[in-house]
Amino acid sequence: MAWLFLFLAGIFEVVWATTMKLSNGFTEIWYTIFTILGMVLSFLFLSISLKQLPLSLAYPIWTGIGAVGALVLGVFLFQDRIAGSTWFFVALLIIGLIGIKVTSGH
Predict the structure, then answer these.
(1) For the chain, how many structural domains are there in total?
(2) Per-residue pLDDT in tens (0 to 9) along the chain, 106 residues
(3) pTM for this entry
(4) 93/95 Cα distance (integer angstroms)
(5) Range of the domain at 34
(6) Contact between 62 and 13 (Cβ < 8 Å)
């Protein structure tokens, strides 16, 4: 169950990062509210997962989900331009996150 909470924490990290961009410097009230809500839920789910998972495992996975998710949404939602070679390193990041999970013993 801790892994589910950690995954949700990562998803809500992507949510708050995306809605922060959409808030236009916190000038759009609804996106600002969703940003704050996403932050609260992200930290809540992370804190719940930390009851069973070590920090050294949960934190890099949480930030990795957020980093990859924000990059993908940036490309597809905001038309951010990412060099083709960057996708290689994104793939390495995903492989690293999977490796951390597989070798963690949790």
Answers:
(1) 1
(2) 999 999 999 999 999 999 999 999 999 999 999 999 999 999 999 999 999 999 999 999 999 999 999 999 999 999 999 999 999 999 999 999 999 888 987 7
(3) 0.88
(4) 5
(5) 2-104
(6) yes
